[in-house]
Structures are given as C-alpha cells and as structure tokens.
Amino acid sequence: MKNLFFTLVFGSLIALLLTGCSKDEATVPVDQIIPPTSTGFNMLRQQALSDLIQTQTFDAEDGIHFVSNKGTILDIGQHELTDHLGNTIVGEVELTFVEIFDRGNMVVANKPLMGRDNTGHLHPLITGGQFFIQVTQADQVLKPLNYYYVTVDAEHTGGLDNEMILWQGEINEAGNLAWNPVEIGIGSGEGDDGNGNIVWTDGDQAGLGFNPVTNTYDFFINEFGWTNVDRFTAVSSALTKIKVKVPTNYNETNSAVYLAYEDQPNLLAQLDLYNTPDQYFTEHFGFVPVGMTLHVIFASESNGQFVYNIKQVTIAEDHIITIATDDLELTSKEDLIDRIDALN
After folding, report:
1. pLDDT 10s digits, 137-171
2. Which band of pLDDT confidence, cut at 50, 70 and 90, is reported for residue 195?
3. End-to-end Cα, the chain, rounded Å
4. How far apart are CA 256 and CA 308, in angstroms?
5. CA of residue 52 relative to chain centroid, distance
6. Strand partners, 74
7. CA 163 – CA 4 distance, rounded (Å)
8. Could you tell me the domains of the chain?
9. Of 41, 103, 39, 96, nearest to 64 (Cα)?
C-alpha cells in the first residue's frame, strides 16, 4: 500500500517531467550545467524526501510501538485511529514516518527551520528534530482519536535544551515549510513519576517534557503531520536584511537559498522572497545578525542532478552576496548532503 500524501505529489511530478523532456534534453552530458526547470527541481526535492520515508503496516485495533532508524519512538494506542468523520478504524493501516536532524537533508528535501512569532514574522529555529507522521488506510488519511506519543533522543542535536517548545509545520503554496508554535498544553505536566517521565493533566491536547534520565524529549500531540521540537535562536547583535543575487535563469521556482549559521549545526534558515527585476533572494524584515559568519547555500538542478554553491560570509549591514554562473557546480544528492553536514 502506497502512502497517499507522497504518491500523489511524486506521481504528478514524474508525469510532468516525462512530458516535458525532449530527445535533445535526454542526451545532454551530465557534466554540463543546463538551465533549470521548476519540475526538475521539485522532482529532486520530492525524491530526497521520499528517500527519508520509513513505513510500517499494523492493525489499527492493536496500535503500534514503532522505533525509527535513529531510535525515535512513536506510540499509537489501541483503537486510536479514526476517519475524517470520527469513525473508529479497524484493519490494516500504514504508517509513514520521516525524521530529519541534519542540515544536509533539510536542504535537499526543502525542510528549513523557520518559525513564526506572534507578529507573523519568520525567524530561524534551532531544532531538536523535525518529524512527519501520517497513517493511511487505502487512499484515506487517518486522524488520531486522542493523541500519540513520541520520544526523541536529544543526543542527535547535542543534548537536552529546556528552552525547546513544540511546533507544527505548514507548507505554503510555494512548497516551503514554516513552523507555528503549539500553545495548548505545553509544559502542563504535573511533576513526574520518579523516573523523569512527565505526568500529564487529563484533557491536554499536546505537551512536551524533558527527561534527563533518558536524555530524551518526550511529547504527545493530537494531530498528525509535521511536528518539531525547536526554539528561536538567541540573538544579541544588530540584525539586517541581506540579498543574495543569483545567475540568470534561476528564480524562486527552480532554486533556493538557505543560511547555515556557523557553530549552530541545528539551524537552517531560508531566504524565501525573490525579487524578479534584480534577480535576488531575500526575506521579509531582516533577521540575519550583523557580524555573524555563516554559509550561504544555493541549490538548484540541472538534468536530474543538484546544482549548488556554498559561500562562507561574515555578514555586514545590508550585505549583498553574489553567486555567479562560474560559481555553480554539479553534484549528487549524497555528496551535497555530506558537504553541508561537514560545514562548521
């Protein structure tokens, strides 16, 4: 049984790519950079995300205790799945699970860390892990009746951080992921059970606990989808709005620009605004710290491969960074992930 969410998107992209390719395009050498297409770029991103999917079938009436490749634990209780009308589901269902801790996979799958504050502005986040969880039966996406539990090893992101909160993700029309804080029931546990495990108040719809005994984040929530354990980055310096100028033929439909802050491996920001007349990426209000050293990551595609450039920059006020055509390189998804994960 195939997952509905990814099957529909992935299948449509394949169809578009096949119908848009000519014989001449198919014979272009892979070591020659050709102009990008939005279809080709989206195809690379969807494939990168699909490569991260873990699946498992189980009986809905039995629930599931699932342990991921990186040791994340997901518990869905017995008789805890319903359809959109609230009817209890029985029979075989399929879990789709994605976990992302590193900046390399965030870039290739387009899952940056930008959180919305109470004014609506997006700021960079420091993550303890981001997750996509979905359960389907045939072509039907299911819902939790109450909530499910997740335990995340904090070792993946440098240890417990008690300032973390819980977030839910939303994907906009451009395909970019942004995070909204979950406010209901956060931190409302009534003590612990003596082993560091939070005891939650009846009726809470979401909660996040910190277990120093097991070095884990423990949360529950009553909705499937994208969920994140994150916090805003602390900034003490002045902030500025930067511009990243990109070569001709590249724009917001076929390329992207991300910021990897030096010495903060659990943060990946995105410049999500594109200025068409002057061909540059920027963002909404100016969140980049003046004086910070960071890596500007440009990503696009050429003939089924990633095109990229990484520039190390120390930010000045109103900084303009230029990426020239001669700066671009072709690489595989795996190599690009390794290069980004190796950054300071």
Report:
1. 998 999 999 999 999 999 999 999 999 999 999 99
2. very low
3. 41
4. 10
5. 11
6. 66, 150
7. 35
8. 48-232 (2.60.220), 239-341 (2.60.40)
9. 96
